[in-house]
Structure formats: structure tokens, C-alpha cells
Design a protein that fits this description.
Low-confidence stretches: 227-234
Distance between the termini: 45 Å
Structural class: mainly alpha
Number of strands: 0
Order of helices and strands: HHHHHHHHHH
Radius of gyration: 20 Å
Largest sheet: none
Strand content: under 5%
Number of helices: 10
Helix content: 55-70%
């Protein structure tokens, strides 16, 4: 799986280049994650055995365990890649970015790093979001995203007694928007691109509550739907 964004944003911080052995281990680690995620998302998490994952990677079961003690650890590693991408994106946002800009930029940065193509990205998302055994992995991933966003937002919000709380509220709202976009993407079976759905959800999030407090019938009067047509009253 590509981690070009993380590498480009954090490469300058590296003290020295990795040794050939470290580089080889890193490449094997990434290849194992990608291959295992493909197999798990195709066959199902519970139906896929550790032996099948090892065989697909051309390594022994014992070697696989040196990298990942359990199947869930493989998915956790994939999720950590996404967290690293989001964190690097947050840290690279210009100082003049507004909180909504930071949230949108960071969340959008994750999407192209999910997999090499949309079909695989959709399959990987369905795996982690719809497998009960992976619920804790998904929740830990979102908690990490929330922490990264909250830290960045807290330093950019106006000073006040509620500054840290406001940053946490904004960060959690951003994660809620991302999860809502994923739910909609899954409902649409991955046919449209995810980023436009995410952008639409963020716009709705910014507009919805203020509009509804002023005009409870705003939605039913026909805001354009994701497919381009306007919603019609029942």
C-alpha cells in the first residue's frame, strides 16, 4: 500500500536512511498488509485462515507471526497507516487554514492512501466497517484521528476557557462526517468516488443545524441530492 504522503511530509525528519535490511523488512511488512487485506476482504475475516494469508504471501506461518501475531493485527496495521497519513496531513496544513479547512484536507488525504484503486478501497472499507470482530480496530482508528485533529485545532482556535473542548467537539464532528460519508458510500456500493460524498456531507454538516433551527422544512423543500436531483416531499 502506498504511503507516499507520509514519506513526503515526514521524510525531512529522518535522521538517516534505513539500512538495506530495514528497508527490505518494511517492504515485506507493507506487502503483507496489502495482500492480507485483499484476501480478508474477498473471503471474509472469519473465513480466512492464517495459513491462507501466509501461503498467499509465499511465507511460512511462523514468519507471518513474526510480523503479525493475529489477523486483527494486520487490519490494525492497515488502519495505522491511515492514521499516519491523516496526522501527517494535519501537521502540514498552512497556518492560515481555518478549522474546517484542516478537517476537510486531513480527511480527504486519507482516501487515496486506502488502496491502489477504488474497488479495493471499497472492499477494505467494507471489511473494517462491517465486520463485528473488527469493531475495536475501527474505533481505535477513529480515536487516533480525533486526537490528531483536536491537537491541531486547539492551537488555532481563539483563546477561551472552552478552547480545548471546542477543538474536541470540532474534531469529533469531523470524524462523524467521515463515518457518515463511508456509510453513504457503502449504501451506494462504492460506485461514486468517496471524496465528493465526503465534501457533500461536510457541507451539509456545516449548514444543517443552523438552517434547521431557522427553518425546519428546509431539507424537504429540495436541497440537491448526491445524485444531482432534488429531494421531493413524500
Amino acid at each position: 500500500m502506498s504511503r507516499s504522503l507520509v514519506s513526503s511530509l515526514r521524510g525531512a525528519a529522518s535522521v538517516s536512511a534505513p539500512s538495506r535490511r530495514e528497508a527490505r523488512r518494511s517492504e515485506t511488512h507493507a506487502a503483507l498488509i496489502e495482500g492480507a487485506m485483499r484476501l480478508l476482504s474477498t473471503q471474509g475475516f472469519d473465513a480466512t485462515t492464517v495459513d491462507e494469508i501466509a501461503a498467499s504471501a509465499g511465507i511460512s506461518r511462523r514468519t507471518l507471526f513474526r510480523y503479525f501475531p493475529t489477523k486483527a493485527d494486520i487490519v490494525t496495521a492497515w488502519a495505522q497507516n491511515m492514521t499516519d497519513v491523516l496526522t501527517a496531513s494535519v501537521e502540514s496544513c498552512p497556518a492560515d487554514f481555518s478549522p474546517p479547512d484542516i478537517i476537510r484536507t486531513a480527511l480527504e488525504a486519507v482516501v487515496p492512501e486506502m488502496a491502489k484503486n477504488r474497488a479495493e478501497a471499497f472492499a477494505f472499507v467494507c471489511l473494517i466497517e462491517r465486520t463485528p470482530a473488527l469493531l475495536s480496530v475501527s474505533l481505535r482508528k477513529y480515536a487516533g484521528w480525533e486526537d490528531a485533529l483536536a491537537v491541531a485545532l486547539a492551537s488555532r482556535l481563539p483563546a477561551s476557557p472552552d478552547q480545548a473542548l471546542a477543538a474536541r467537539v470540532a474534531a469529533r464532528s469531523g470524524i462523524a462526517a467521515f463515518r457518515t460519508a463511508l456509510d453513504e458510500w457503502i449504501r451506494l456500493r462504492g460506485r461514486p468516488a468517496l471524496v465528493p460524498i465526503l465534501r457533500r456531507v461536510l457541507v451539509l454538516q456545516a449548514e444543517l443545524l443552523p438552517r434547521l433551527s431557522e427553518d425546519p422544512e428546509w431539507v424537504s423543500r429540495g436541497r440537491p441530492a448526491l445524485g444531482g436531483s432534488r429531494a421531493r416531499p413524500a
